[in-house]
From TrEMBL:
Highest taxon, organism lineage: Bacteria
Biological source species: Veillonella atypica
One cellular component (GO) term of this entry: membrane
Primary localization: membrane
Assigned keywords, A-Z: Lipoprotein, Membrane, Palmitate, Signal
Record-linked PANTHER family: D-METHIONINE-BINDING LIPOPROTEIN METQ, METHIONINE-BINDING LIPOPROTEIN METQ
Protein name according to UniProt: MetQ/NlpA family ABC transporter substrate-binding protein
Similarity comment: Belongs to the NlpA lipoprotein family.
Membrane topology label: Lipid-anchor
Signal peptide coordinates: 1-20
Length: 274
């Protein structure tokens, strides 16, 4: 009888040890995840990651698969659904807007180098040529529309309601428009193709890059506010994952700083601390 009890006790102990070891193994596997998937676009931010950050992480044993996305809404949806691990295509203002409208659970982990939005020539070639009733094309998505109007205020063409948050202003928040400028809000991707139909256009960094417009040809650039800095974005459930911490560390590494010094070419605004 005692022998049977000892056997039962021994079996229970073996099971308990195996169960604990198994749990520890699973946690270890999750913590040591090395195969990562990210959504990518044809813009400068995926390219910067692939050329400047990815090689740093590959030395640490990480492997990556990029999944092409046609637009940022799609990229955020697959990230929110857990189909990819991260993206580097948006600022916090855009991310917050997505979370609110799509019930998303995305979080930003660190700011990354950003291409400023700019005002470029359309049919007119300098800011001094602005005249009464001139037409200006601006992005129609909420966050980048706000950037456009903030830039137009910066150069003195309009005045916005000072009681409004610059990150969320709309055309309705313009309280002074002395030159009676006319604004057309449209998809960012289409603006370069109709550039000469307007006197001026305002476009963001990814569009500047994709349209192969020389960023140095901007007639004026925005002041890059914190909410408009591009970010490394993950699903909230992965914000404390070791791989996420390692990507953040790579963006802050000396190796990446050296890469930026050699490859900036006047295109990038680099956040302090990067």
């Amino acid at each position: 009888m005692k022998f049977k009890k000892l056997l039962a006790l021994g079996a229970a102990l073996v099971f308990s040890v195996a169960f604990i070891a198994g749990c520890g193994s699973n946690n270890s596997d999750n913590g040591a995840k090395k195969e990562l998937t990210y959504s990518k676009s044809q813009g400068p931010y995926s390219e910067l990651f692939e050329k400047g950050v990815k090689p740093i992480l590959e030395k640490q044993g990480y492997t990556f698969k990029g999944v092409d996305m046609s637009d940022l809404v799609q990229a955020d949806q697959v990230l929110s659904d857990g189909e990819v691990d991260f993206n580097v295509e948006q600022h916090t203002a855009y991310m917050k807007n997505f979370n609110e409208k799509q019930n998303g659970h995305l979080v930003a982990l660190t700011p990354i180098p950003t291409v400023p939005a700019g005002i470029f020539s359309g049919s007119k070639t300098s800011l001094d040529q602005v005249a009464d009733g001139d037409t200006i094309a601006v992005p129609n998505d909420a966050s980048n529309m706000a950037r456009a109007y903030a830039l137009l205020q910066k150069i003195g063409w309009i005045k916005l309601d000072p009681n409004k948050d610059l990150a969320t202003v709309t055309q309705a928040d313009i309280i002074e428009n002395p030159k009676h400028l006319k604004f057309t809000e449209m998809k960012s991707l289409t603006i370069p193709s109709v550039r000469t139909d307007f006197d001026y256009i305002v476009i963001t960094g990814a569009i500047i890059y994709n349209a192969k417009i020389d960023p140095k040809s901007a007639l004026a650039n925005e002041d890059v506010l914190p909410q408009w800095l591009l970010q490394l974005v993950v699903n909230e459930k992965n914000k404390d994952a070791q791989w996420a911490k390692d990507i953040v560390a790579a963006y802050h590494s000396q190796e990446f700083k050296d890469y930026m010094e050699k490859n900036n070419n006047g295109l990038w605004f680099v956040p302090k601390g990067e």
